[in-house]
């Protein structure tokens, strides 16, 4: 995530109109040139851009603006806590008929290379169904004999980062299960 506010020019317009913060501070905060901010104040730049209130947007607090107004050398700091927005849920996109045979092959690739992944994780990565994943895993899929493993990243079903996250999560769950099993064995041997 960058340290630049959302809609920087509109934010700069609001800061110029509503605060006593220096052009240099506004320029640094909005990632603009100081002359551009001066142009906004003169009305030469950003004509027709509606001012965007960074306080209402949660990008700045009133205290932050007041502190920077009093000290000309103090930079404005973006309020990151509120801006940490979760990424939107991935929507299913249309997969052409010619590419649909790639899904079972991607499932096969994932189940062969990363057996620790749960069926639910494979479903999320590839966009298949849990039933299909279980059938492929147990070699009972109707077309098992003609399937060849295909990397889901190459098929554009998910990214390498998505696979890494899923593997890390599966490994953590596996380690936790082993730890609980070990503790249970220890308790049984003590009794």
Question: Secondary-structure map with pairings?
Answer:
Elements: H1 8-18, H2 23-30, H3 34-42, H4 62-70, H5 80-83, H6 102-113, H7 119-126, H8 130-137, H9 160-190
Helix pairs in contact: 1-2, 2-3, 6-8
Main β sheet profile: none
Please state the overall shape, judged from the principal axes of the Cα atoms: elongated
Distance between the termini: 53 Å
**What Rg do the Cα atoms give?**
27 Å
Unreliable parts: none
Mean pLDDT: 85
H and E string = HHHHHHHHH
Tally of separate helices:
9
Q: By helix and strand content, what is the structural category?
A: mainly alpha
The oligomeric state is single chain
The helical percent reads 40-55%
**Proportion of residues in extended strands:** under 5%
Number of domains: 2
Kindly state the number of beta strands: 0
Structure description:
By secondary structure, the protein is an all-alpha fold. The protein folds into 2 domains: 8-83, no CATH class; 97-190, no CATH class. It is built from 9 helices and no strands. It has helices at 8-18, 23-30, 34-42, 62-70, 80-83, 102-113, 119-126, 130-137, 160-190. α1 (8-18) runs antiparallel to α2, α2 (23-30) crosses α3 (34-42) and α6 packs across α8. It starts with 7 loop residues before the first helix and ends with a helix.
What would you say about this model in short?
By secondary structure, the chain is mainly alpha-helical. The protein contains nine helices and no strands.
List keywords for this structure.
single chain, 191 residues, 52% helix
């Amino acid at each position: 995530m960058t340290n630049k506010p959302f809609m920087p020019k509109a934010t700069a317009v609001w800061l110029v109109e509503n605060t006593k913060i220096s052009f240099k501070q506004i320029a640094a905060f909005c990632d603009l040139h100081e002359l551009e901010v001066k142009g906004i104040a003169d009305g030469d730049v950003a004509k027709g851009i509606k001012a965007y209130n960074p306080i209402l947007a949660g990008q700045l607090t009133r205290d932050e603006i007041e502190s920077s107004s009093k000290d000309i050398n103090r930079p404005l700091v973006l309020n990151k806590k509120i801006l940490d927005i979760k990424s939107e849920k991935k929507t299913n996109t249309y997969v052409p008929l010619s590419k649909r045979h790639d899904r079972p092959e991607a499932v096969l690739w994932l189940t062969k290379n990363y057996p620790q992944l749960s069926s639910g994780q494979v479903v999320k990565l590839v966009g298949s169904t849990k039933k299909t994943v279980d059938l492929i895993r147990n070699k009972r899929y109707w077309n098992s004999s003609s399937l060849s493993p295909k990397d889901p990243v190459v098929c554009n079903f998910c990214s390498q980062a998505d696979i890494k996250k899923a593997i890390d999560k599966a490994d953590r769950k596996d380690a936790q299960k082993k730890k609980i099993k070990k503790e249970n064995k220890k308790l049984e041997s003590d009794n």
